Amino acid sequence: MYLLFYISGAIAIFATVMTITRLNAIHALLYFVVSLLSVAVVFYILGAPFIAALEVIIYAGAIMVLFIFVVMMMNLGQRAVELESQWLSPRMWIGPEILAAVLIAEVVYLLSRTPVEVHAIEFVEPQEVGPALFGPYLIGVELASMLLLGALVGAYHLGYRKPKAVENLNADDTDATRAAAGGDTVRAGHDRPVSAA
Amino acid sequence: MRRNLVFTLMSIEIMLNAAGLAFIAAGAHWIQAEGQVMFLFILAMAASEVSVGLALLLRLYQQHGVLDADSASEMKG
Amino acid sequence: MLQLTGIIPAIPFFSFLLLAIFGPRMARRAVSVTGVGSIGASAIISGIITAAFISAPPAGWAYHEVIWRWMSVSSFQADIGFYLDALSLVMVLVITFVAFLIHLYSTEYMEGDEGYSRFFAYMNLFVASMIMLVLADNLLLLYLGWEGVGLCSYLLIGFWYTDPANGRAARKAFIVTRVGDTSMVIGLFLIFQRLGTLNIQELMHRASLQWPAGAAVAIAAAALLLGGAVGKSAQLPLQTWLPDAMAGPTPTSALIHAATMVTAGVYLIARTHVLFSLAPPVMLAVAVIGAATLLLAGCSALTQRDIKRVLAYSTISQIGYMFLALGVGAWSAAIFHFMTHAFFKALLFLAAGAVIQAQHEEHDIFKMGGLRRMIPITFWAFLISGCALAGLPIITAGFYSKGMILWGAWSSPQGAPALWIAGLVGVLLTSLYIFRVIFVAFFGEAQIPVEHPPRLAKNLSMIVLSVLSIGAGWVNLPSYLGNKLWLNDLLYTALPAVAERPAGWLTEGWSEGIVTAAFVVGLIVAYGLYLRHRGATRPLTENALGRAIHEFWSADWGFDFAYDKLLVAPVMWFAQVDKRDFIDKFYDGLAALSRACYRALSATESGRVRWYAASIVGGTVIFVFLVLFL
Predict the structure, then answer these.
(1) Are A106 and C620 an interchain contact pair (Cβ–Cβ within 8 Å)?
(2) Nearest to C313 by CA among C529, C541, C556, C518
């Protein structure tokens, strides 16, 4: 049991590290899905089967799929990858690395202060979670539903585009109009480098 | 810090997931249902945040043609 | 009935508030009714109170009423209180009545002006302050009125503020009188410190008990008060502001700078006469200042071309007469002259204002002429008041008051023949300069056609004042005409009587005769120089010495020049030099510091999401660190 736990944990950590260091957005998202799946296994081992299922279905199955669809819709090409490699220079991530290291140190220190007794894992059945949701945490459920409603309306409204007369589908035109953006542009259209305008 | 906004949003998801993991672990430690309840809320919140965030991302992309986070700096000063 | 005393300053004050707040929105007619009506009401009430006072005088011939306690700080108390005795009664009556007539006149004079309501607001405030000054029972309240009239003088001189010259004149008036006011305040401090009270009757009582005559502290206190009086009344050496104050509207000049405010100094000295009596050197100084001023101003008036400046110097000169009277101990004579002077000088100014408006705003008398036929009522008004000023015998008021002063200068124990002679020369000069103006401006051929002849309001005020200028002297008939000194008898209840020396070779009648002779001489000379032979003065002024004297007298005997070079220029130079001193640097430093902080803080608002996220993370790290380890 514990061996499985450590293996899934290692896979989760490794997958997450890969996520944040990839240049290609799709690669990163796929690694993240792997991370989510391994975390779901961890949840099951910790005694939350219901949550493990939810993690797979909702988080990995809905949210990440949404992410992947949108990124695919944006049609980032090779150009984007080159741009990312420019942006992800060592000079860039040294600062955040230091901050993260300090944070990790603080967390480890905190955790090491309080001795934790290890006991057997007991399953917390869905039959316990359900009444808790409908009992003391009812308001939270209602609020969550309102939140989701708001997100729904907001996402619909933000995503709505009035149909233009003629949408510019010709990539040459978009190239020309966006060439003056200074520097490189990550643009929709054909996967070829920007011709010097 | 990553300039590409997709990665920024993805990092937010990672963080939410991590927080949820902490909650479940705590719930398992004290063998209570509350940890899972919190995770459910986090999940719902993450879902709504992702949808709105992605819609905004699309908007930004339409307006600026780039996914650069620094291009949206019109509120400077 | 005497309880109505408190209302006399209150009505104009409330009228001022009304006009100040609502004036711009009120109709012209409403403003006129409010402005003039308030003063009219005050005048009527003063008349009622005068009748009540004379017919049923209160105990000790003084009515004292305290409205409320103004301040009470450890050993110092000051009240808002009114003290009505014969002196303040006469002052209040004259002030309100003359002010009423001048307000009536101004409804026509200022009718085209867009600052109409502002004018009446200021004038009403002025009347309220002046009444307060006169009725005050303690020196602090008197000083409040003193400052109030100074403020209104400033506001009204600079009434047409869009012209910077008017602003300069107003500032000059305020600053010069300020010098006097400072002296007066120091005097108040000294009096309070030594006598423990500022209540006028009380302090005079204590001073007469505690200070022997000629004591140094009495001299100091009286001299300091004299400084204040000199400033406000435009006597030597602080007389330079009055001629320039003619930049204000003519009703202002009539009210403030002829009839009332400039006499505040005279009132102050008369009010605190005990203090002055205890300091004979100061009394002598008062008389000498009065005599010197009247001569100086008379000479200057002779050389002026602007009709209002002639009258300004004339005012300075006449107040010199009042100071002369005060200095020799003829207190009631000074107040009598104040009364008659208020009437005829106000009339002179009002008539001059009518002339100015009739002559297209022309002030130079040599550009006018022939007004005798064109604006007859104004001419007669000016002639009557001019004769009153110069002292036409029997039928004008000025004759009586001036005669009494000169007789006092001769016969009083503190008087001296030199002072009498100075007064006599003054009469000659007065007659000369006023008839100069009359003959040049009103006789001869018309040069400028008449534009706005005066109508009802102006004419009515001028006629009433003319009657007063003729008849006001008859309240005090001197010894050779019946010796019925009604006004003096009233005033002797408040002021000490003049003790007369044993008469020498000069009796009052002879003194009057010589004064009349001086008047006639002046009249004849003026006639000869200005009417008969129009250019007769030219050889005098074309001569080098004559021109030099003319320039000197015209420039106020060099006082303006001297003050400018000695006092004004160094201060201005120093202000220029001191523009960027270390105090400025300190405040500049503060401003620079806030600018630097602004720049630093605005740099944190880069608009970039990554930067904000990074700062959140950094803040979290620091916060956790603090919570963990501190």
Answers:
(1) no
(2) C556
